[in-house]
Structures are given as C-alpha cells and as structure tokens.
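Researcher: We're reviewing a set of sequences before deciding which ones to prioritize for further study. For each one, I'd like a predicted 3D structure that I can look through quickly. This is Peptidase. If possible, include the structure in token form so it fits the rest of the review sheet.
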Amino acid sequence: MLAAGEADAKQRKRKPELIPAYATSVAWGAVSGPSLGAPQAIGGYAAGCIAGARALPPEGVGYQVIRLSRQRNYGHPVLVDMLRDFGQRVALAGLGTALIGDMGQARGGPMPSGHASHQIGLDADVWLRLDLPPMGRAGRERLDEIKYVDYDRMRVTEDWTDRQARMIQIAAADVRVARIFVSPAIKLAMCQRSWTDRRFLNKLRPWHGHDGHMHIRLTCPSGSPLCEQQTAQPEGDGCDDELMSWLASASPAIERPPGYKPEPRVVRKMPAACRPVLNAAGTRMASLPASLPEPVPLPAKASR
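Model: Here's the predicted structure for Peptidase, in token form for your review sheet.
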C-alpha cells in the first residue's frame, strides 16, 4: 500500500486528460453553417452532433423564432417539420403565437453556454407565454421569460391558463415527440386537468428549471443509425409517486449574474463520427484560439 505522500506524488505526475478539439464547445460554437449531405443525428442527445441540419425559418404560421442572434435555430429536418406543424396547430386552435427558443447549433455539438443537451438536432425549447403578437426580429432579441411556477406553494401561478395547457398537449400529441420536459409543478397542473385522452401525459417528464418553457425532444428519426434512443418511459400517465418526489425537491433555477462567462463545455463521449461532421464541406469557421490545439489538455471534470 502506498503511503499518503507517495500517492500524492503519483497523482501529481499523472498526465492531464487529453480531450480532442472536436469534443469541446469552442469548436462547435465557431461553426456558422450546416454540413452538406443527407441529414443524420449522431450520438446521444447530450453527446453528439447533426449532419445535414436545416434552419427553422424565423417566422411561420403560428410561431416566431426568438433570439436569432444566438444562431441556435437549426435541427434535423424532422424537427423543423414538427415545429412548423406545431405552429399551424397552435394557430388553428386560436392560442396565439408560439415562441420558439433554442433548438441546436448548425452542426449540433456542445454549446458554449446553456444546454447540456440539444446536440443532435432533435431538441427544441418553446416558451409558454402566448401573449405576444408577431414581432420584428430585433424586438425578439430581448424578451423576458414568464415563470409559471410559485415555488413557495409548488403550484402554477395565476398567469397559467388553459392556453398553456392546450399548447403543451398539442406538442405532446405529435407522434414524433419522445418526451417533453416541464417543471414538476406544471406536470402536476397537467395531471389535475380533465382530459378525454390522458395518454399524452406519459410524455411529460418533470425536470427542474423548466418553469417558463417546455423542452421538446423527438425520437431518433429513420436514416440515423448512429442516433442513440433514450430508454422508454414507464407506462402510465406519470401522475404518481415519482412526480411527488420531484415536487418535494423542486427549486428555481440559479440565475447567472450579468456578464457570466462559462468555461468551455467538454463532452468526453463525443462520437468519433462527429469529427468529419465538424470538418465537412460547407464549414465556415471563425478563427479558433491558439490555445486550443488538438488534442486539448483539460483537467478531468464530471459531466452533467
């Protein structure tokens, strides 16, 4: 058995973990356009990329994309089609105009800030507020998200209406949708409503922080053999003890101070198939920092 001093010395001599540049958010955040070729989701929702992505048009029937300057309105064509269909159904139901938030980057991969997932072109955030008319693109850059959860009572606020509930139901009823993440209190509100068909409730998964938007996630599409499907949810509507445990531990998301700059995100299990996606024809990359060689030595750090 090594003495404590010997163990410490051995630890100090250990070489830092080598992380290839294509596994860091710096590289993926510098890409400004999708790769050419057939669309393909590669890897897992929090460790992968998207080839042949498409951009969701900034405006459409029943929806408008917000914060376009973030350049996160890309996804697999199946996601783009789903959101356009969703907007039409929202408009047909007379609910208002849906606000589409972050989808993914031009080639997916880890983002410099925000989401741990949204990496393979199959995730999209949709804000729950429905009180805004169609707006110019500049006006959509700085909007405030309305929070629909009273954390003291762990119930939805008075701002919550049938329109929010109906919009979530429309999204969940789409067969392309695998699950939708919402605050536990919002899931509870949906469970307490009377629905003719409650099967869609199974897709609503309680998750902390989703108190002003829903996070839509699609199933792996055909033609994407490297896409990693998530384990199916348990049967039932999910309005059970599991939800109660989420409610007991729910708390508001931590607000980052103005000017906060996160460290580059590292994905240690980034599929090797994502390297050619990053470097494929059509790439327009900004100059990467000289301090980011390949491979990149970074300290070991637990991933989310």
